[in-house]
Amino acid sequence: MKLENYVTSTEDNVYAIKNVPTEVVGTVFAKVSRSPRSFRDNLYDLIKEDMLHLPDVDMISMFKESAAHAGGFMKKWGVDYGHSSIKEHAFAQFCIEGVSRWFTEILETVQAAKWLSFTEFSLRYQKPQDFVVPRELDQHPELKEHYITFGKECFRKYEELVPLFFALLKAKHPGMKDSAVEKLAYENARNVLPLATKSNVAVTGNARAISDAIAEMLSHEGYSSEVVEIAQKIRKHTTEVLPSLISHTEATPYLCSYMAEFYQRRVQEPETLPVYNGPFVEVTKDAAALAFTRSDDMVLGDLAKMNRFSELPAIMRAFGKRVAVTCSEGCHHQIIRHRAFDFSLQLPDTRYGLILPQEAVEASGTPEAERIINTLLTMRAESHRLYNELVENGLIGIAPYVVLNANARRLPFYANMYGLAHFVTLRKEEYAQDEIRSVAFQLERIFHDMEHSLPGFEMDRHLKK
Question: Which SUPFAM superfamilies does the annotation name (predicted)?
Fold first, then answer.
């Protein structure tokens, strides 16, 4: 059986999946998040072992030769007549490999992200492979050399931090298996890695959302060649499997104006770069908030019967408060996946400061913790210097690549009760990463009054099966 029948490319770092049951694709996507091997590699293993019993035929190619496509039926009813909603019934599954962590954030925060699903390579479980060197740096050879030196030093420091965190964590959890301690050491050591670190991401989405995402990413023209080039590849490969419905993908004047505003520094240079011992949540006092008030026409059900899998009725999206979370880039990347919230995204900037890992803060004074903290402070200083140098050379679109995972970022958003009910329940789980657990605890305290205005409701239901 030929792999070419099931992927749109056997060589490109972007490719769509075809002729494979969606359940199989989703399962392999999940496996890839914990594996350094690509989706293609894992899929090919299943094909070689004949575990899938797939037909050895390319049905997509056959469809392209059909009267429905070649004769223009699909284009006429799906595009020309303006029935854009038809695009929501067709979907594609595709993979993007070897891209920067900064790119995956851009992809996962497009306006259409609410209708896309993502699975990303996890640095909590795997060691990093390499980092992206943006093509824009080819025009600045000396700056490119500084950038590469910085990236290599970050990776070298990562290797130094893993055993230091392992020692701290083993002392804290003497009964924990070494494999579990090692995972936590990876999780903490990634703080020193830059957003240039390579990642893989798998995506499922309908044709309308994919088309809108492509248009938005193409509007990064002039700021990031990586984003634009990957958007073009996504268009190419998703068009292979949805030949009639990937359309209207041009960057509009409005989207370009949005990006021009996004790529601006929003925080002033502080006298001293701040260092925080953990994340914190602020309530925006002067912003509109809507406290819960039940009306006679509101249907809620018996909230005391909700378990960890239950969701509040959609009407609860209206009630909430505007907050701002200041957290590390690593934690930020987890929070933005909660798409029930509407985020006001800020450009990564070293001026926001540094969030020290909880494990190092708790063990402060020990030789391992002091070495960890000193390493992060040293690399933060290098990151800040290089960030400013990139901006001064007109490369503000490349500056985010040198921001560390431990760097702070401020994330303003409207925290609605619907989204919070899920966020707090999921992120207070014992296995959740410690920093995002801290954010969940803080949000729960802030919304204590609203929680108790709902009879029988519990924000945290992670123990309720």
Answer: Thymidylate synthase-complementing protein Thy1
Residue 34 token pair = 């914990």
Q: Is residue 364 part of a domain?
A: yes
Same domain for 75 and 119, yes or no, is yes
Same-domain status, 25 and 139: no
On whether both 213 and 104 belong to a single domain, the answer is: yes
34 within a domain of the structure (yes/no) = yes
CATH number at residue 219: 3.30.1360
Contact 405, 195 (CB under 8 A): yes
DSSP 223: T
Please name the residues in contact with 175: beta carbons below 8 A apart, sequence gap of 6 or more: none
Domain that holds residue 328: 275-350+406-451
**Is 335 strand, coil or helix?**
helix
Task: Tell me, yes or no, whether 190 and 215 share the same domain.
Answer: no
Q: Has this prediction a pTM greater than 0.90?
A: yes
Distance CA 83, CA 207 (A): 12
- The CB density around residue 52, as the number of other CB atoms within 10 Å, is 14
Grouped pLDDT means (10 residues each) for the chain, 465 residues: 87 93 85 77 81 75 63 61 76 95 97 93 80 98 98 98 96 93 93 96 95 98 98 97 90 97 94 96 79 84 92 92 96 95 95 97 96 98 98 98 98 95 92 93 93 89 75
Number of domain units in the chain: 3
Instruction: Name the nearest CA neighbour of 308 among 424, 189, 137, 445.
Output: 424
Task: Give the pLDDT of residue 356.
Answer: 98
Q: Are 95 and 6 in contact (CB under 8 A)?
A: no
- CB distance 404 to 154 below 8 Å: yes
460 within domain boundaries: no
> Is residue 433 located within the same domain as residue 376?
no
C-beta atoms surrounding 50 within 10 Å: 9
Q: What pLDDT does 24 receive?
A: 85
What is the full DSSP assignment across 366-417? SHHHHHHHHHHHHHHHHHHHHHHHHHHTT-TTTGGGG-BTTBEEEEEEEEEH
Identify the CA nearest to 199 among candidates 277, 279, 121.
121
Q: Find out whether 133 and 148 touch, Cβ atoms under 8 Å.
A: yes
The residue among 337, 403, 345 whose CA lies nearest residue 191 is: 403
